[in-house]
Amino acid sequence: MAPQPEYSNWQELMDLVKSAAENDQHELLLTMMMTPDEREALVARVNILCELMKGDLSQRQISQMLGVGVATITRGSNELKAKSEQEKQEIAQLLLK
């Protein structure tokens, strides 16, 4: 029988991140799992969501501000549109300072 990976789906990964956070090891885990470019892209994604939720800037303005393509902004916008109002409120509470 062929060896199986330790983690096979998104929920298992989320459980790992939660466990790491509970043990104050999330920074170590996330830093080890992502390259510097991936970490930079994740920061951009968080900022995309923040700006979309604020609603003050156009997608083109967000793209220019963050140095990412308009298509990346559109994908973030589509993800946000797919969420319920409650989910949007929850993410806003997490992200917006």
Radius of gyration: 16 Å
**CATH homologous superfamily caption:** TrpR-like
**Count of beta strands:** 0
Total number of domains? 1
H/E element sequence = HHHHHH
The portion of residues forming beta strands comes to under 5%
By CATH reckoning, the class would read Mainly Alpha
Q: Tell me the CATH architecture.
A: Orthogonal Bundle
Molecular shape? globular
- Unreliably modeled segments: none
Q: What's the helical proportion of residues?
A: over 70%
* CATH fold assignment: Trp Operon Repressor, Chain A
Q: What is the end-to-end distance?
A: 50 Å
Give a short account of the largest sheet: none
Class by alpha and beta content: mainly alpha
Family: Belongs to the TrpR family.
GO molecular function: DNA-binding transcription factor activity; sequence-specific DNA binding
Pfam family, one: Trp_repressor
Main location: cytoplasm
Topology:
Blueprint: H1 10-22, H2 26-33, H3 36-54, H4 59-66, H5 70-81, H6 85-95
Helix pairs in contact: 1-2, 3-4, 3-5, 4-5
List its traits.
mainly alpha; 97 residues
Give structural notes.
The longest helix has 19 residues, at 36-54. This protein has a single domain (10-96), classed as TrpR-like (Trp Operon Repressor, Chain A). With 97 residues, it is mainly α. The termini are far apart. The mean pLDDT is 95. Helix 1 crosses helix 2. The chain has 6 helices and no strands.
